[in-house]
Design brief:
Strand order of the largest sheet: 3-2-1-6-5-4
Low-confidence stretches: 144-152, 162-190
Helix content: 40-55%
Number of strands: 9
Length: 279
């Protein structure tokens, strides 16, 4: 079963952004197996007493009802035929619900990103679209731990070989940046607004935080690709060298990675000798 790297900072950004966007009492990432539902990561649950790791039968959850064809969002779950008899609705006295699927690499739904509230909280179509974007961020962090153990090789055909499977795209073949955790973050996370935001303001904040969550991963993966070709190293070895050089010089991995990427188009960009040429 695919595994989501819940410890990655981007997951925290996703939940915070979703909470700002929806304005609901509880926002959570729900894990799904064929038989069970689990509150994997929860924000705002103190008053509800929902502990992370709380598990129930999948059929009892509102998320399962949504996946079976129920509406994505309701502000009156007790009257909605898809949700009113769900045991979880009654257990937590849920009035409002919104949820979108998180899909694994094969398209299978492995989790849901959701919000719940005991009051009536309508959710706009715009907000659902942003919530779907946030779910895609979560999907980008699936199986990070498993991928760390996969051997990635350059194939004779010119593409990449990952665990015996062929792919022509290095970026899709690995998620090495996820191994960085907090080391590659491009500066501090965007501040939350001091005053309550209207819907447009919430959407703008969500876009800013989405860009922040993705920026580090994209730049570091690009730098790994440059070093892999330039120094004839494997992707993991290229990443370890980038991180080692950054640490030895007191630099942020993200900043050094940006310079490596720039050097691919402009050889005059100064780089530490360990990253500058073929080994």
């Amino acid at each position: 079963m695919p595994v989501i790297d819940l410890s990655h900072p981007a997951i925290g950004v996703v939940l915070t952004t979703a909470a700002d966007l929806l304005g609901m009492e509880v926002v959570f990432l729900g894990g799904l197996t064929p038989d069970s539902f689990t509150f994997e990561k929860v924000a705002g649950s103190d008053a509800w007493g929902i502990a992370e790791g709380t598990r129930s039968a999948r059929a009892d959850s509102l998320c399962e009802r949504m996946l079976r064809g129920g509406v994505v969002s309701t502000s009156d779950a007790s009257e909605d035929p898809a949700f009113r008899d769900a045991p979880m609705r009654a257990e937590y006295a849920i009035t409002s619900y919104v949820g979108v699927p998180v899909r694994g690499p094969d398209g299978e739904v492995v989790a849901t990103l959701c919000g719940i509230d005991r009051g009536a909280v309508p959710v706009s179509d715009q907000s659902v679209r942003v919530l779907t974007q946030l779910a895609e961020i979560v999907a980008a962090h699936i199986d990070a731990a498993a991928q760390a153990e996969v051997v990635i090789r350059r194939s004779p055909s010119g593409g990449w070989e990952v665990g015996g499977e062929q792919t022509g795209d290095l970026t899709s073949a690995m998620v090495l940046a996820d191994l960085l955790a907090g080391e590659v973050a491009p500066g501090a996370r965007p501040r939350r607004a001091d005053q309550p935001l209207d819907e447009l303001g919430q959407l703008r904040l969500s876009v800013t935080q989405l860009e922040h969550a993705l920026a580090a991963r994209v730049v570091v993966e690009q730098a790994i690709g440059v070093l892999t070709e330039r120094q004839r190293r494997g992707p993991r070895e290229a990443f370890e060298r980038l991180r080692k050089v950054a640490r030895s010089r007191g630099r942020k991995v993200h900043d050094l990675a940006r310079e490596v990427v720039l050097s691919a188009a402009d050889p005059s960009v100064p780089l530490p000798p360990e990253l500058a040429g073929r080994r």
